[in-house]
Amino acid sequence: MGESLPLVALTEEALWLLLETVQLRLVRFVRGIVGNVEDARDIIQDVFVNAWRTAQRPAAPFIAGSGERDVQRWLFRAAYNKAIDTVRHRSVIAWETLDPFSPSDLVVPQESLPFEERLAEGEVLRAALAHLEPQDLACLRLSIIEDFTSVEIGHILDITPEAARKRLSRATHRLRAAYLAQTDRSSSSSSQVNTRADISGERRER
Fold first, then answer.
1. What is the chain written as a DSSP string?
2. Which of its termini does the chain have fewer beta carbons within 10 Å around, N or C?
3. Percent over 90 (pLDDT), the chain
4. Residue numbers of the domain that contains 57
C-alpha cells in the first residue's frame, strides 16, 4: 500500500478570497438568529479566525482541491453553532425578518398592496417569525435564502437529510400558520380602530 500524500494548505490569498465571497451571506444568516448585526459580525469574525487556524494545520476543507461549496458548508455550520450558543447564553431570542424573504408565497403578492398595507405585512411577518424556534428559522434561511439542499442543511445543522426535510416542512407550516394568525389579529385590530373612529365621528356630528 502506498503512503497517502500530505495535505496541501490553501494559500493565504486563496483562503481570504473564499472567506470574503461569503462574508455578507454569513453575517445576514447569523443576524437573523441573534437579532442584531453587531453580534453577527463578532461571530463571523470568530468563525474566520477558526477557519484560518484550521487552514494552518492544514485540514479539510481548507486544503488545495477542496470545492467552494465544501468551504461554505463548513463556514455556515460553524456560524450556526456559534449563533445558537449566543442565543442560549443570552436566554433571549430577538428575531429579525427573513430578508429578502417575503410572505408573497403565503398570501397575495406584496406588489399588489398599497404602501401602508405593505408596511403592515412586514410587521406581521416579523411577529410570525418570532414564533419559530431558532433551529426552524435557521433551516428556512438556509433553504430559502442560501439555497442549500436538504443534504447540505443536514450537514450544517448536524442532523440527517430526512430530519432536515421534516424540519423544513414543519417550519414552513408553522410560519404559514403563525403568519395567517397574525394577519387575522392585524385585521381585527384595524377593524376596531375604524369602528371607534366612526363612532367618534358620529358623536361629533350630533
1. -PPPPPP-BPPHHHHHHHHHHHHHHHHHHHHHHHSSHHHHHHHHHHHHHHHHHHHHTT-TTSBTT--HHHHHHHHHHHHHHHHHHHHHHHT-------TT--GGGTSS-GGGS-HHHHHHHHHHHHHHHTTS-HHHHHHHIIIIIS---HHHHHHHHTS-HHHHHHHHHHHHHHHHHHHHHHHHHHHHHHHHHHHHHHHHHHHHH-
2. N
3. 34
4. 7-94
